Known about the structure:
The chain has 12 helices and no strands. It is mainly alpha-helical and about 230 residues long. The protein has 2 domains: about 5-45, Arc Repressor Mutant, subunit A; about 50-215, Orthogonal Bundle (Tetracycline Repressor, domain 2). Helix 5 (about 80-95) crosses helix 10, helix 7 (about 100-110) crosses helix 8 (about 110-135) and helix 8 crosses helix 9 (about 145-170). The radius of gyration is 20 Å and the shape is globular.
Amino acid sequence: MAAPKTRDRIVQASLELFNAQGERSVTTNHISAHLGMSPGNLYYHFRNKQKIIAELFLQYEDRVDSVLQRPPGRAMTVADKTFYLEALLASMWHYRFLHRDLEHLLEADPELAWRYRWFARRCLNRAQDIYQGFVEAGILRMTPVQIEALALNAWIVMTSWVRFLCTTRGDPGDLSEDLLRRGIYQVLALEDGYIADSARDAVQALYERLHVPLEEVIAESPTLAG
Length: 226
């Protein structure tokens, strides 16, 4: 197998460092030192850190776009709901720095902010289409107005969940897939009042798989130093 190209190595190392330490704590010098290369070599491929972030956002965008699609040619099932939730959880975990530092990233890069706005609009439209698919399959019982509200609420929960964890736990490095799983559970909980009786048992199994106790989500408050 061929060795990864230098550009790909830079992107992967940046993702690892951003996720572990937070984007604000990582400079291009940190990235080049981590890779054992000169800053000039890094700048040959990416002239600044914003360009690396833009590349990572493009990867994240493509990954989410590939997930948020209705299956063609068949009715949707509860198994599709499992697929969507677990795939989105995996995407959130893999690119968690984007969710943690989103406001700062968008303020620092107007072009990225423009791309994100279109990405958000596209995700909301696709989410509504997917919820409509669950309605047509008899899994959810909702009106178009309720579908629109649910899609928006789900987006708000998912895009703010990592930041919520950081503010309530205090340590950006203290994140785990279990903690993100509770965020997906919160999205599922938004649907509870709309689930058809015929799908209740299958959805309940999803609840049990995703649930993480609240005491694990919000860490104990440390004693303040005098």
